[in-house]
Amino acid sequence: MNQRLQRLADQIQRELAVLIRDEINDPRLTGLVTISSVKISPDLGYADIYVTILEMHKDDSMDKELHSESLQILNKAAGFLRTELSHILRTRTTPRLRFHYDEITANSNYMMNLISKAVQKSEQDNQL
């Protein structure tokens, strides 16, 4: 990706994070939506937005149904978000937004959480 596209991707990532937080008021969108990366096609036709939804259950499992519902909500709001982005960005065209669930980041966050809990448990066991 060239430098111009990378700067635009970074700006879209920052602006979308604010727009999703402040403008999407759907009660079904639970959890914290984090944009992990943005990839823009060279012709500025599409922007693939990779998101994670930080919502853990009490048993530390990740609920795939919640993530897919959140993705559906974001994809339905893509037109609205694109319109809002077009007012902010200084580009001739605004790419169409496609939201994807970032499995790699979500799985690494999940594993890091499990590791930290195991370390805490080990430290507690050693203190006894």
Automatic annotation (TrEMBL):
What GO molecular function terms would the record report?
Answer: ribosomal small subunit binding
Which Pfam family, giving just one, matches this sequence? RBFA
Q: Which GO terms describe its biological process?
A: maturation of SSU-rRNA
Which superkingdom heads the taxonomic lineage of this protein's source?
Bacteria
Key words, A-Z: Cytoplasm, Ribosome biogenesis
Q: Which family does it belong to?
A: Belongs to the RbfA family.
Supply the InterPro entries for this chain.
KH_dom-like_a/b, RbfA, RbfA_dom_sf
Function of the molecule = One of several proteins that assist in the late maturation steps of the functional core of the 30S ribosomal subunit. Associates with free 30S ribosomal subunits (but not with 30S subunits that are part of 70S ribosomes or polysomes). Required for efficient processing of 16S rRNA. May interact with the 5'-terminal helix region of 16S rRNA.
Q: Which gene encodes it?
A: rbfA
Its name, as the record gives it, is Ribosome-binding factor A
